[in-house]
Specification:
The chain is an alpha+beta fold and about 350 residues long. About 40% of the residues lie in helices and about 15% in strands. It binds adenosine-5'-diphosphate and magnesium ion.
């Protein structure tokens, strides 16, 4: 492929190559009409031999690029211009200073991401997918995978790489593109639907949770590779990756709901854990108070200068939690318990701990 140099459209001065993928070359450029602002120019691969293919591709490109330029979402890289020059096609878009999730993972040498981080990114992706799927007609992203998801230096997630080139080539049987491991079975014969994007999101979650590419055309279980992943999230990923479309979540919104559901394995600061600890704390304080009142005369007979015992609320909660009826946990933001809340002490271990606790006075 011949590389592009110089200035395009009298406006975009090519500075360097940012990436070279299967679909074209991505350049960092300066918009000399807009204060030398950095932007990205993507040159799309162009290897059509027949003139009619080229013509069809051109009109397709036109339509698609216009559609892309209309999309506006904080998590979608903003396309600002498109043109063809010297028989090549170019897209101009916002420059995202950051890195894609595939190279971030490579840099951490395949170390899995924390479940919470993965869930939070997945929820952001669900929001973008809901936005795309709500367009008329729905826009199917089709190529969700770690290398197409960028995290900016400010921590903002952005989807790049809308598959214009892929669509241009859709008529050419030899170049149908699927991303092994990330594309669902139905995409292998060309019938992508909105749930195809959910499969790819499940596959992406698998990668982030395990550091491994998912196996193609198979339900993948993150738990099998990383025992730290909760069974709940494992089941979410598996449902996304169901081979039959009908077995997956029906929409990005439904998947988002599932991701928000607070049923992950207990971590020290999730609301369910908080609740368990605080109910346990109340039971403990009451028990200690009873014991203390009952035993005070005995205790006094051993101490010359009895001080009131300081009762420490156990397991990290503060005394304030008990004394102050207005106390609310900052993690909960003072709101009522959420879905998935259990009105019983489910954590046997914390009860056992409590019995040992009075010795610590
Ligand atoms: N707007 C952008 N800003 C910064 N980097 C980008 C941008 N678009 C793409 N890149 C980088 O270039 C890589 C390849 O771009 P992409 O559009 O995915 O091309 P390909 O079709 O070759 O996969 C991306 O993985 C990303 O790291
Ligand atoms: Mg890409």
């Amino acid at each position: 492929m011949m590389s592009t140099q110089g200035t395009l459209q009298n406006r975009y001065r090519i500075e360097s190559v940012l990436g070279q993928g299967g679909m074209g070359t991505v350049y960092l450029a300066k918009d000399i009409r807009l204060d030398e602002r950095l932007c990205v120019v993507k040159e799309l691969r162009d290897d059509f031999y027949r003139d009619e293919d080229k013509q069809r591709a051109l009109s397709f490109f036109d339509r698609e690029a216009r559609m892309l330029a209309r999309l506006k979402h904080g998590s979608i890289v903003q396309v600002s211009d498109y043109f063809s020059e010297q028989g090549k096609y170019f897209l101009v878009m916002e420059y995202v200073e950051g890195e894609n999730l595939h190279s971030i993972m490579q840099k951490r040498e395949g170390e899995a991401f924390d479940e919470k981080q993965v869930v939070s990114w997945a929820i952001e992706i669900c929001d973008v997918l809901s936005y795309l799927h709500a367009q008329d007609p729905p826009v199917i992203y089709r190529d969700l995978k770690p290398s197409n998801i960028m995290i900016s230096s400010g921590g903002q997630l952005k989807l790049v790489d809308f598959g214009i080139a892929r669509k241009i080539e859709a008529d050419d049987e030899n170049t149908r593109v699927v991303s092994a491991g990330y594309s669902p079975p139905e995409q292998y014969w060309g019938a992508a639907n909105i749930q195809s994007d959910l499969y790819a999101l499940g596959a992406t979650m698998f990668f982030l949770l395990t550091g491994k590419d998912p196996e193609p055309l198979k339900i993948n279980s993150p738990c099998e590779h990383n025992s730290e992943v909760s069974e709940y999230l494992d089941s979410v990923v598996q449902k996304c990756m169901a081979q039959e479309t009908a077995q997956r979540y029906s929409s990005a919104r439904e998947l988002r709901e599932a991701l928000l559901y607070d049923d992950y394995e207990e971590e020290p600061d999730n609301p369910k854990g908080w609740f368990t600890r605080n109910v346990a704390a109340v039971i403990f304080i009451v028990a200690v108070a009873l014991v203390f009142i009952g035993w005070e005369p005995i205790v006094n007979s051993f101490k010359s200068d009895p001080k009131p015992a300081k009762v420490n609320a156990p397991l990290g909660s503060s005394e304030k939690a008990v004394d102050d009826p207005t106390y609310s946990d900052p993690l909960l933001g003072g709101v009522a318990p959420q879905k998935g809340f259990a009105l019983q002490v489910t954590d046997e271990a914390s009860l056992t701990d409590l019995e040992a606790r009075p010795k610590q006075k």
